[in-house]
Amino acid sequence: MALRAALRHKCGLSAVLTQLAVGTSHGRVSMPLLLSQQRNRSTASRVSVHFDQSTGVAVMYMQSPPVNSLSLDFLTEFCISVEKLEMDKGCRGLIITSNQPKVFSAGLDIMEMYGKTPERCGEFWKAVQEMWLKLYGSNMVIISAINGSSPAGGCLMALTSDYRIMADNPRYNIGLNETQLGIVAPFWFKDTMVNTVGHRSAELSLELGLLYSPSEALKIGLVDQLVPEDQVLTTALQIMTKWLAIPDHARQITKSTMRKPTIDKLMSSREADVQNFVSFITRDSIQKSLRMYLEMLKKRKA
Ligand SMILES: CCC/C=C/C(=O)SCCNC(=O)CCNC(=O)[C@H](O)C(C)(C)COP(=O)([O-])OP(=O)([O-])OC[C@H]1O[C@@H](n2cnc3c(N)ncnc32)[C@H](O)[C@@H]1OP(=O)([O-])[O-]
């Protein structure tokens, strides 16, 4: 009851305490749950958060069909959910995974960058920054349970985690493939990649817009562990237990020491970064590249 009241007080949003049992398909496990998320009256929730108070671990399922692309609506709901967990002192660990088949996240929603006004593009980019800041600077242990492909912004999301576990399925890929769309990953995408795989691998990866198979991603350190597809979430829960055995304050200060310079760099230039994105993405030549890429995606499907 106290937690329920606290959540209401802190978030100003409805928090629903409920006991649920989650099925065992797609690597999901059964556990008692606290479901705490924003309810949207007109649309289905794009994220679903299952919080086990007894372990202090929340599992966040992205469920925005068809491919969990990061639209403004998705990012808004996602950030509210992360913020609520961050404010809940009982929540020490967060696992991010997907409820969509074959895809973790297709990255930024291309339709948010194509044919939109500069104002709308700016609003969208602020939301992308917000997602990165919330995840990369989180006090929680964050583990990505990557149960499908994860290109571009999907890869960025995974890169913000403390640990990445990917399904060992050669049909999936992960990487910052922005140059293949004719667009440029901003400095903070690049810095997050460099911090993870080192300068040379990041340089090759970003310039060529490489998408890596799970085994290639493991080789360069883009992911930390591969497991059979049906074990991604259960492994994430096991690994989380190890991370939570470290005293929070020591781990959090260490994490902050590692990440603060990268975070400060964006914090000190957020507005300039928005202006830079808007002027770049609204160029005719970039809009043409995006249109061609969208057509290619449709053709590939046909
Ligand atoms: C400076 C900026 C930095 C930018 C960073 C980014 O993240 S840029 C983003 C870079 N991202 C990429 O390059 C990833 C591009 N996507 C893919 O490579 C594949 O979709 C997949 C591997 C994620 C899933 O394969 P699959 O065979 O399971 O699925 P499928 O291919 O059949 O697609 C189903 C439907 O979803 C649609 N749609 C897909 N992605 C996006 C999107 N991001 N957005 C919007 N829509 C998207 C697709 O058109 C199709 O629509 P339709 O025809 O039904 O109306």
TrEMBL record:
Its EC number(s): 5.3.3.8
Single Gene Ontology BP annotation: fatty acid beta-oxidation
Domain of life, source organism: Eukaryota
PROSITE patterns per record: ENOYL_COA_HYDRATASE
A molecular function GO annotation: delta(3)-delta(2)-enoyl-CoA isomerase activity
Major location (coarse): mitochondrion
CDD domains according to UniProt: crotonase-like
Keyword Acetylation belongs to the record: yes
Gene3D superfamilies reported for this sequence: 2-enoyl-CoA Hydratase, Chain A, domain 1, 6.10.250.170
Cellular compartment(s): Mitochondrion matrix
Role according to the record: Key enzyme of fatty acid beta-oxidation. Able to isomerize both 3-cis (3Z) and 3-trans (3E) double bonds into the 2-trans (2E) form in a range of enoyl-CoA species, with a preference for (3Z)-enoyl-CoAs over (3E)-enoyl-CoAs. The catalytic efficiency of this enzyme is not affected by the fatty acyl chain length.
PANTHER family: ENOYL-COA DELTA ISOMERASE 1, MITOCHONDRIAL, ENOYL-COA HYDRATASE-RELATED
Protein's UniProt name: Enoyl-CoA delta isomerase 1, mitochondrial
Protein's organism: Betta splendens
Name of the gene encoding the protein in the UniProt record: eci1
